[in-house]
Amino acid sequence: MKIGIGLDPTLGLSFDEQKMLSQRAVHLGYSSIWTPEGRGQDSFQICALRWAASCAIKPEGITTGIAVSPVMYRTPIAFAMSAGTLSKITNDKFILGIGSGNAHFKKERHSLGMPDFSTLSIMRDYIRSTQALLQGELVNYEGPVVKLRGIKLDIKPPPKTPIYLGALGPEMLRLAGELADGAILNWCTPEQITWSKNCIAEGSKRIDRTADSIQVAQYIRICVDDDIDAARQALALAVLGYALGPRSSSGRKRKLGYRAHFERMGFKDVLEELDQMRIRGATREEMADKLPGNLLRKVGYYGPQKGASKAFNKLAEGLDLAIVRVVATTQSNVNSVEATMEACAPSLLKATT
């Protein structure tokens, strides 16, 4: 198992701080450094900045990756151009992770001019067409969502860019097994990792791939702070941002995306209680207080530095790549980020770099 580090925009890090932390990641033995993507700064450029900074410590730099970029924000040719260029810059030390984002919400699709197709159709089209472009093919692709006619990526020789698929539900996991180079899980218990890998293996059998050829990665949230209450609150707020879902979600919509994912893992009753609190006007902080610590510890860690590595090892069982996703109790607190990075340094974990 390899260990990466994940730094996201919620940490409020400046570019100089990100450079410094990228170099610190090399010193601590991390094999890769990752970022998610939203509607803020361009994550391809963030990856380039971090890789360049890591080269000051390790001449070839360490791998960088996006996990994940919602496909609705770019066309397949835009993904291929940006990913291919970054692969060339980093000498093939870049991994492109793509996901459906909130494509299962009609309002989200319409806000970006996306048609009303299933998320599976969207992701199948994006993986196939982007892969073909990155492989240097002249692409004529006619899918329900993506239509390309005689398009070729003018990067020679073709870049070597792995594509990982962000996947939670059974069919998306099977799609990763069928088409992607890797699957990126999120907020999974060890039991859910096993279940996910079984789904991936089912997908790989569709085209006679070996399941072992598909890398399985996951963000694991870690919040290190001696103030246990503050750490628990920070992790609980992070969970809420995913698990509860939009206020307007219908019963059918709750069977999709992260809400369905957390319910599959046993969070259903507490989430329904939080729904009622939200209807009554409770704040996010009040709802976070209601999330039981034992449930939070099933998908992440909060607390003192000394307990982080043991918890991380347990949560990472079965993964090929475990990514320490830093959750900080205070924004822009570089010391807090470094404490988490040090607590889960690969030298303390059962890992190879």
Measured distance between first and last alpha carbons? 8 Å
- β-strand percent reads 15-25%
Major beta sheet, strand line-up: 1-2-3-4-7-8-9-11
Note the overall shape.
globular
Helical segment tally? 13
| Average residue pLDDT | 93
User: What is the tally of beta strands?
Assistant: 11
Summarize the biggest pleated sheet.
8 strands, parallel, barrel
Element-by-element helix/strand order: EHEHEHEHHEEEHEHEHHHHEHEH
Could you say which structural class the secondary elements and strand pairing correspond to? alpha/beta
Poorly predicted residue ranges: none
Structure overview:
The chain is α/β, with parallel strands linked by helices and 353 residues long. The protein is built from 13 helices and eleven strands. The chain has helices at residues 15-27, 43-54, 76-89, 106-111, 119-134, 170-179, 190-204, 228-243, 257-279, 284-290, 293-299, 308-315, 334-343; strands at 2-6, 32-35, 63-70, 94-99, 139-142, 147-151, 163-166, 182-186, 215-224, 300-303, 321-326. It has an eight-stranded parallel beta barrel, surrounded by eight helices. Helix 3 (76-89) packs across helix 5 (119-134), helix 5 runs parallel beside helix 6 (170-179) and helix 8 crosses helix 10 (284-290). The model has no long low-confidence stretch (mean pLDDT 93).
Task: Give the topology.
Elements (H helix, E strand, L loop, with lengths): L1 E5 L8 H13 L4 E4 L7 H12 L8 E8 L5 H14 L4 E6 L6 H6 L7 H16 L4 E4 L4 E5 L11 E4 L3 H10 L2 E5 L3 H15 L10 E10 L3 H16 L13 H23 L4 H7 L2 H7 E4 L4 H8 L5 E6 L7 H10 L10
Parallel strand pairs: 1-2, 1-11, 2-3, 3-4, 4-7, 7-8, 8-9, 9-10, 9-11
Antiparallel strand pairs: 5-6
Helix pairs in contact: 1-2, 3-5, 5-6, 6-7, 8-10
